[in-house]
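Review form for a predicted model. The reviewer records the input and the model, then writes brief findings.
Reviewer: anonymous (R2)
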Amino acid sequence: MNQLAISDVKAYVNENIETFHRNKIKTLQTINLQAVLKKKNPYLFKAKNITLAASLIEEILEAFLYSSEEKLFGDFLEDLAVFIAGKTFNGRKSSASGIDLEMEKARIRYLVSIKSGPNWGNSAQHKKQESDFQIAVKVLRQSKHTEQIQAVLGICYGKVKTSYLRGYMKIAGQNFWFFISDNPNLFTDIIEPLGHKAKEHNDQFSKQKTRLINSFTREFLNLYCASGNIDWVKLVQFNSGNLDLK
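Model under review:
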């Protein structure tokens, strides 16, 4: 194992968190009202008795952006984990389907799939992950490598106990960051650099989001508020109208 320098981690985070913020803004610049309206549940917003077009747009946009933000930050955490494992155990990005990281520790070859949080995926995605582990382990055992192989589901946050499931080990939160670094404090050490220029970036994001809310509201009023009130029937028809059953 190589000793992990926290200064290297901080430098990596400071440099690459910029990409996360840039991608957030890029999302704002590429979405359109129709795409947002198609992806969110109009029945829910009607049930919440939303009557102001601006309020509806803000809620729909917030929900849409939150999903996008979770994915973007999950990608960032995955790359951070691969970087750290590269420094400590010569880990590397895996080319195997469903596997993010390969590393060796105590003469064990680990195949790691990295997830942002504990509530990831549905049952079909869990089965797919299990299958990806089985295939990757089988392929590796058929190669020249004969050392012990362990599949790992690594989860970046959450107080989930370490457990052994169907052919793989699940490690979360502090245990995951310790697993790839042998540093029990790494899970808190990475918090401070994550705030690098956070206020500056988020102020810029908020300004662009406000402009987008105003733009979407104006467009929504023209399309779905001809009478001054939200035309829920027309909105639901746009969102879900697809009758083709005979």
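Findings: Residues 1-89+197-241 form a domain with the type ii restriction endonuclease, domain 1 fold (CATH 1.10.3250).
Further findings: The mean pLDDT is 91.
Recommendation: see findings above.
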